[in-house]
Design goal:
By secondary structure, the chain is an alpha+beta fold. It contains 15 helices and 15 strands. The strands form four sheets. The protein has an eight-stranded mixed beta sheet, with helices on both faces. A three-stranded mixed beta sheet has the order 1-3-2.
Length: 479
């Protein structure tokens, strides 16, 4: 039994029934991290001693008859943008390379309270900007399917750690694709949640609804398990939703017969999509038809969504990162400097226009989801690109002028404030993963997860792992 290949739900069951100890689980993952992480660079801070001590305490509590939490004994490295008390949180920036918070972020508290054992932190782009994980503090994270390629971002370290078997679950966050793109690039599952589903505290802007937190896993059921402890209301978070977290634990994959499915292979002609991605995804709509769904090619009205996203993103950058720019301009990546300055140049009229246009788009999406239960779309417009690139400068013959242009298939849908699940959808002839995006109406996480689980069961794409990683050897590209 390769423990590091088991689903998180299965590991949790074995530990709960005392067929495995937390110490065995943590020790086995630490050994794998020691072998493989130097090549992949997914986990950038590691505290093995504290993790083993916490595992021993977890085993002792279980032996005394304490009721185990749903994540009892599962090791996890948190995204390096989430505050962890006593463990550095660098945001991938030299300005914060030695920053050690004195408090845990709310989602960290919830995950650890559910029994998970902190082992370290996962790599991110500088200030989580963009969907390629590289920074001047720790360098680049490499894709376990091809070490010469990007793992995506900003939750790239988390996704690479999952597919390499370094941890069974991962937390992430998503503004314009930061959960979904790395999930697609690394053949794992990532869920962008409805704003307020996973409360964010502390937060610079408690009313902000563009950035959300969500779960990642190797299966839909694993992502649902993690969501069940991340979700739930908190009075400090004005957008938080009332549904308790445990309502999202996933039942077996349901019967999809009669499901109304919209298929938008290029978001209604709004985004260029690389041929290899198109070829893989072209077969996926037929999977839903074979499951008994009614599939039509259609797309919600996303006109104006590009301007809305870029305006709100620039405002957020100015608000949260402006002080770092003022402290040391030279220590901030030039492209991020431009984003901050774009935010500072916004007027009240600009923000009012973006708010009004987002409202119009939201209402159009509500009408769209009265006709359809889910929307299917590409997660990423490209396959994982060379790790040396900052971003792909051309997609299907169309120039991409900034480091977020190529992410439109993810960030246009961020504007809808709806749950969007990235689920493995297959591989290119070169062995590179491609993800499918399953989007539902706002607050419909459970429905989206159920659809994702049925698709996952019908295809099995997520079970394919890099061969060398699956054997516990040095990571190398698949052949």
């Amino acid at each position: 039994m390769d423990l590091c290949r088991l689903d998180a739900t299965e590991i949790a069951r074995l530990v709960r029934h005392r067929d495995l100890s937390a110490r065995e689980v943590v020790t086995t993952h630490l050994e794998r991290i020691e072998r493989i992480n130097p090549t992949v660079n997914a986990i950038v801070t590691l505290d093995a001693e504290s993790a083993l001590a916490a595992a021993a305490v977890a085993d002792e509590r279980l032996a005394r008859g304490a009721e185990p939490g749903p994540l009892h004994g599962l090791p996890i490295a948190f995204k390096d943008t989430h505050l962890t008390s006593g463990m550095r949180t660098t945001y991938g920036s030299p300005l914060l390379a030695d920053f050690v918070p004195d408090e845990d972020e709310l989602l960290v508290q919830r995950i650890e309270s559910a029994g998970a054992i902190r082992i370290g932190k996962t790599n991110v782009p500088e200030f989580a900007a963009g969907s390629h994980t590289f920074n001047p503090v720790f360098g680049a994270t490499r894709n376990p399917y091809d070490l010469g390629r990007s793992a995506g971002g900003s939750s790239g370290g988390a996704a690479a750690a999952l597919t390499a078997g370094l941890q069974p679950l991962a937390d992430g966050s998503d503004m314009g694709g930061s959960l979904r793109n790395p999930a697609s690039f690394c053949n794992v599952v990532g869920l962008r949640t409805t704003p307020g589903r996973v409360p964010l505290h502390p937060a610079t802007d408690a009313w902000g609804s563009l950035t959300v937190a969500g779960p990642m896993g190797r299966t839909v059921a694993d992502a649902a398990l993690l969501l069940s402890v991340m979700a739930g209301p908190d009075p400090r978070c004005p957008l938080s939703l009332d549904a308790p977290g445990d309502s999202f634990r996933l039942p077996p994959a349901g019967d999809l017969r009669g499901l109304r499915v919209a298929w938008a292979p290029d978001l209604g002609g709004r985004v260029p999509v690389e041929r290899d991605v198109r070829d893989v995804l072209a077969e996926q709509a037929s999977v839903f038809a074979e499951l008994g769904c009614h599939v039509e090619e259609d797309c919600p009205d996303l006109d104006g969504a590009d301007d809305v996203f870029r305006t709100l993103r620039a405002q957020a950058f100015a608000q949260t990162l402006g002080p770092h720019l003022d402290a040391s301009r030279q220590a901030v990546r030039p492209s991020i400097v431009r984003n901050i300055e774009e935010g500072r140049a916004l007027t009240g009229a600009d923000l009012a226009r973006a708010a009004a246009e987002r409202t119009r788009i939201h209402l159009a999406a509500v009408r769209f989801f009265e006709r359809y239960d889910v929307l299917l779309a590409p997660v990423a417009q490209v396959v994982p690109f060379p790790v040396e690139w900052e971003y792909p400068q051309v997609v299907d013959g169309q120039p991409q002028h900034t480091y977020i242009d190529w992410m439109r298939s993810a960030y246009l849908l961020s504007v809808l404030a709806a749950p969007a699940l990235s689920v493995p959808a297959g591989f290119t002839p070169a062995g590179l993963p491609v993800g499918l995006q399953i989007v539902g109406p706002p607050r419909a996480e459970r429905a989206v997860l159920t659809v994702g689980a049925a698709y996952e069961a019908a295809t099995g794409h997520g079970r394919r792992r890099p061969r060398a990683v699956a054997g516990g050897l040095t990571v190398q590209p698949p052949v």
